Amino acid sequence: MENAKSVKLVLEDGTEIQGKSFGAFTSAAGEVVFSTAMTGYPENLTDPSFAGQILVLTYPMVGNYGVPGEDLYESISKIFESDKIHVAGLVVNYYSEEHSHWHAAKSLGDWLSEYNIPGIFDVDTRLLTKKLREKGAMLGKIVAEDDVPLHDPNQDNLVAQVSPTEVKHYGSGSNKIVLVDCGTKTNIIRCFLERDVELIRVPWDYDFTQLDYDGLFLSNGPGDPKMCEATIGHLQTALQQDKPIFGICLGSQLMGLAAGGNTFKLKYGHRSHNQPVLLTGTKRSYITSQNHGFAVDTDTLPAEWEMLFENLNDGTCEGIKHKTKPFFSTQFHPEAAGGPQDTEFMFDDFLKAVEEYKEGK
Ligand SMILES: NC(=O)CC[C@H](N)C(=O)O
């Protein structure tokens, strides 16, 4: 892009990296995290779990397939993971303003501008990632004209900012599932609606314990799971019963906390489409899509709980399960979007548990 204005990326350790502006020419602060996924920027940027984060992409060329046009299905997006861009900023190496794809409606830069989100390109994102791997995720900011203070998004209740304020109903089916929306990705809703499910989507702090349902689902979401006290409280009531519960990512962390375990912040998190996980007690591994900065500390889980999946790169917890009740979770994203769909069977496993519960098994 000729004529691109200069902007810089500043990290909390004092590092300053000069680059060029695309998207909105504005300043923004957040937590600087990296993803090694090779594709999927329309999905990543709209994933509410990225709220408050400046996303660094290691894949060297970004923007070449543009951004698809909006398309709705059951009043939710068919394409995007929510109805807006959630990242605070985007850092790439080569930005391809010229895009080409049958479904592209606009360029990545124009899309970022629409939501007033700054992008910076001409940054050696692999070198930057090595730094983030050594020092851990850092606070940082993209600075255009006006400077902004550094800001730690993990001190905010980000879930309250991205969760809906109203209850919504979707689909029809024989299994009534309550989805606690802490910032759900729409592909989770799509995965349920492709199955025999009537979905009741409720806000993060809604008292779902009063509802009539067959199974409870806890969504992904941004920030520190310990901010979700209201959800954890309601969940503790649900854990006293026997109705199946399934959680993904933040949902897995909330299940761990409600069970009495602890969560901790990972050094730099897992964000990519090729994270290997091992199903506990087997030699079976799966390649999974991930986006998280916190994890359940398996050692703190009460005796009735155990680790369901383990990350094969660093041994951290990738899901938990109750030893006797149908409560289980994945730290990774079985709904993918983007990334491999190899673990989508987790939705079938959950619905099987729901049907067995209804049959009184
Ligand atoms: N994708 C998610 O749900 C992320 C959960 C949590 N905010 C974390 O970073 O660990």
UniProtKB/TrEMBL annotation:
PROSITE patterns: GATASE_TYPE_1. The active site is at 249 (nucleophile), 333, 335. Pfam families: CPSase_sm_chain (PF00988), GATase (PF00117). Transmembrane segments: none annotated. Signal peptide: none annotated. Keywords: Amino-acid biosynthesis, Arginine biosynthesis, ATP-binding, Glutamine amidotransferase, Ligase, Nucleotide-binding, Pyrimidine biosynthesis. L-glutamine binds at residues 49, 221, 223, 250, 253, 291, 293-294. Residues 5-143 form the Carbamoyl-phosphate synthase small subunit N-terminal domain. Pathway: Amino-acid biosynthesis; L-arginine biosynthesis; carbamoyl phosphate from bicarbonate: step 1/1; Pyrimidine metabolism; UMP biosynthesis via de novo pathway; (S)-dihydroorotate from bicarbonate: step 1/3. It catalyses: L-glutamine + H2O = L-glutamate + NH4(+); hydrogencarbonate + L-glutamine + 2 ATP + H2O = carbamoyl phosphate + L-glutamate + 2 ADP + phosphate + 2 H(+). Residues 1-176 are annotated as: CPSase. GO terms for molecular function: carbamoyl-phosphate synthase (glutamine-hydrolyzing) activity. It is an enzyme of class 6 (ligase). Composed of two chains; the small (or glutamine) chain promotes the hydrolysis of glutamine to ammonia, which is used by the large (or ammonia) chain to synthesize carbamoyl phosphate. Tetramer of heterodimers (alpha,beta)4. Small subunit of the glutamine-dependent carbamoyl phosphate synthetase (CPSase). CPSase catalyzes the formation of carbamoyl phosphate from the ammonia moiety of glutamine, carbonate, and phosphate donated by ATP, constituting the first step of 2 biosynthetic pathways, one leading to arginine and/or urea and the other to pyrimidine nucleotides. The small subunit (glutamine amidotransferase) binds and cleaves glutamine to supply the large subunit with the substrate ammonia. Belongs to the CarA family. This is Carbamoyl phosphate synthase small chain. The gene is carA.
